[in-house]
Design goal:
With about 200 residues, this protein is mostly helical. About 70% of the residues lie in helices and about 0% in strands. The two termini are about 15 Å apart.
Length: about 200
């Protein structure tokens, strides 16, 4: 279910929201590169979060931070994260619900970060949304497990374990953002999923 089998044209048609979000992040990565790379100045220039700037009224940073990244590794890891985990969810939820979740998860995670962070902290990245995806999958595993094949459930649980461990041991990771995103995804899941929600490539087990 998590393998990308579509060609480029089919991918765009089947997953328009994932395509748009990855495209926005990619354009910002390109602009950052042409502007001199991932410096703090450029991260903020292209929408990154900073506590002091939000306090001064730049509230849009509570959302735009989710499209900017801190370095090339951060960008490529998150885009891979988005494509692998986001595609099945966009298919199961439908593009409208998926877009709603994406924006709500990004905004709520941004607000939580702002409540926890202090002066001068700079943050960026779509990891909160990615962990929101994991929160939805965790809800499915616990309460709607027939939506996923056994191997898919094992894959997700392994992914969650690795993600949480890395959040604790990698200094540059935003543990708060990751945990917030996962909790948000888990809590919103009952409102996103209905009895007809299904993953097309999964069978009941």
């Amino acid at each position: 279910m998590f393998l990308v089998r579509e060609d480029f044209k089919t991918f765009i048609k089947k997953y328009p929201i994932i395509t748009i979000m990855v495209s926005i992040c990619s354009i910002l990565a390109l602009l950052t590169t042409t502007a001199g790379g991932y410096t703090t100045e450029n991260i903020l220039k292209f929408g990154g979060y900073q506590y002091d700037l939000v306090q001064q009224g730049e509230f849009w940073r509570l959302l735009t931070y989710a499209f900017m990244h801190g370095n090339y590794t951060h960008f490529f890891m998150n885009m891979t994260f988005m494509i692998i985990l986001g595609r099945p969810l966009e298919s199961a939820l439908g593009s409208v619900k998926f877009l709603f979740f994406y924006m709500v998860a990004a905004l709520l995670t941004g607000i939580i970060l702002h409540l926890v962070y202090s002066s001068n902290i700079v943050s960026s990245g779509s990891s909160g949304v990615g962990y929101g995806f994991l929160g939805i999958y965790l809800f499915i595993i616990l309460f709607r497990k027939n939506m996923l094949l056994l191997d898919d459930r094992k894959f997700i649980l392994t992914f969650i374990a690795i993600g949480l461990i890395s959040s604790f041991i990698i200094p540059s990771s935003s543990l708060t953002g990751h945990l917030a995103g996962m909790v948000i995804g888990f809590m919103i899941s009952p409102f996103l999923l209905n009895k007809t929600s299904t993953f097309k490539q999964s069978l009941n087990v």
